[in-house]
Automatic annotation (TrEMBL):
Keywords noted in UniProt: ATP-binding, Nucleotide-binding
Pfam families on file: ATPase_2, DUF234
Lineage: Bacteria, Bacillati, Bacillota, Negativicutes, Selenomonadales
Every DUF234 domain range: 311-407
Protein name, per record: ATP-binding protein
Length: 459
């Protein structure tokens, strides 16, 4: 399969590899996000010795033996067993005084373990040799917490990396490159369920419909991607049941800390630890309103991985039904209704925000906005709270975007309702935009409003 996406990141790594100076790169991100494949793709263009070793979840001595073998192979020399990182680095850096060399250590946390002294060995070697060699050092890993510790201001390797790259899952647009022949609605459905992790997207079968892929990869008890979810959680979490509790709560719409804590069986410390772990892994994030970022009561946790969101929304508590029903019957009776009524509209909002961010970063929004998010309000007259889907803030003020995931085109009735509500609440939006699944009626003026259809989002 050809390499998809990550062109910006690929260009950066290739530039670092092509330079005539020593470079130290840190590439990290959650499991299956495509770190190793990105680096391997960049290495295809090099014609220099490459020491590539994937660390195992085994002893330090076993990993050192593997690194030693990789070094011998790269230089086509007799095997020398290095007992320490210090010995290996002196050998490799010494070689790099005469030629350009690449040292790519994948899954570095398995080599390091809890021994920070190993970080110090790399730091000492970088400081000693960086001006005398052309070694390209790449440390890569999936244990996000460990990798982030390497760049902490108190860590030995702080300030030593010439490039730090944290890979995230693809957004709605790049994810669709894995299935370019699908319709726009199919692309959104697949992204809403499977998210943007490359490995998950590679499991999709082009010969099956989106629903058939869901029935095959997720619904059967013990399905392949269900096992991937469990592996993702157990890799960095000691208490999977705590993570299950938190994720199920958030998927059901319970996002505030106080609400999540209400039925939690452990201590507040354990809950905070679990939330922090999940947030560090990139599985959940704290969502703050654009106009109330300092108000902790308005903060809520959301699942930022669509596969997890779908799983805990529809499947986690349905083990008995999943084992008793066929995948097709289960989907029809337990998934289909809620999927179309509430889940996909929510994911359409997510994709709309991702679209605006892409356009803004590409310089296609004038004036460019510097903040984006939901916008909360308190209607004192009606004694009710509410929020606007997406609001952007730029130098001129605020623009509100409403998202409608409906089969019929969006007409002026919806536009007038949005304008009237903002006026009644005394909100000073200087512009209005609309995202519509099925486009817009003829009476909606594209010169007055910012209009984006699902087709526009994928064009």
């Amino acid at each position: 399969m050809k390499f998809i996406g990550r062109q910006h990141e690929l260009s950066i790594i290739r530039q670092k590899l092509a330079s005539n100076r020593a470079e130290s790169m840190l590439v990290y991100g959650r499991r299956r996000v495509g770190k190793s494949e990105l680096i391997k793709e960049a290495l295809k263009e090099v014609d220099v010795p490459v020491i590539h070793y994937v660390c195992r979840k085994s002893s330090f001595s076993q990993n050192m033996a593997g690194l030693s073998q990789a070094a011998a192979k790269a230089f086509d020399e007799p095997f020398i067993k290095f007992e320490s990182i210090d010995q290996l680095l002196k050998y490799v850096y010494g070689k790099a005084t005469r030629q350009k060399i690449i040292l790519f250590i994948d899954e570095y946390p398995f080599l390091r373990g809890d021994n920070e002294a190993i970080d110090s060995e790399f730091q000492i070697a970088i400081d000693e040799w960086q001006h005398e060699t052309c070694l390209k050092l790449i440390l890569c890993g999936s244990y996000v917490e460990t990798m982030q510790k390497l760049v902490d201001s108190r860590a030995p390797l702080f300030g030593r990396f010439t490039e730090i790259m944290k890979l995230k899952p693809f957004d709605y647009y790049d994810a669709a490159k894995f299935f370019p022949n699908r319709t726009d609605e199919e692309k959104l459905l697949l992204y809403s369920v499977f998210g943007g992790v490359p490995f998950y997207l590679m499991q999709l079968d082009d010969n099956l419909s989106p629903v058939e892929n869901i029935q095959k990869l997720l619904i059967p008890e013990g399905a392949m991607l269900e096992n991937e979810i469990r592996l993702q959680l157990t890799a960095e979490l000691s208490k999977e049941e705590n993570a299950n509790y938190v994720l199920e709560k958030i998927a059901s719409g319970v996002g505030r800390y106080s609400e999540i804590a209400r039925d939690f069986s452990g201590s507040s410390g354990k809950l905070s630890h679990t939330l922090g772990k999940l947030e560090g892994m990139g599985l959940i994030e704290k969502d703050s309103p654009l106009n109330a970022s300092s108000n902790k009561r308005q903060h809520r946790y959301v699942i930022c991985d669509n596969l997890l969101d779908f799983y805990y929304t529809f499947l986690f508590r349905e083990t008995t039904a999943r084992s008793a029903m066929s995948p097709a019957v289960f989907f029809e009776s337990k998934v289909e209704g809620k999927l179309n009524i509430s889940y996909l509209p929510r994911k359409f909002e997510q994709a709309a925000m991702e679209y605006l961010l892409r356009q803004n970063r590409a310089g296609k929004i004038d004036p460019p906005f510097y903040a984006i998010g939901r916008y909360v309000y308190n209607d004192k007259a009606k004694r009710q709270n509410g929020e606007f889907d997406i609001v952007t803030q730029d130098d001129k003020g605020l623009i509100s975007y409403e998202c409608k995931y409906r089969k019929e085109p969006l007409g002026m009735k919806v536009v007038h309702e949005e304008e009237w509500q903002a006026k009644e609440l005394g909100l000073d939006f200087y512009g209005f935009g609309f995202f519509a699944r099925s486009g817009f009626a003829d009476d909606v003026d594209a010169k007055t409003y910012r209009l984006v259809s699902l087709q526009d989002m994928y064009s």
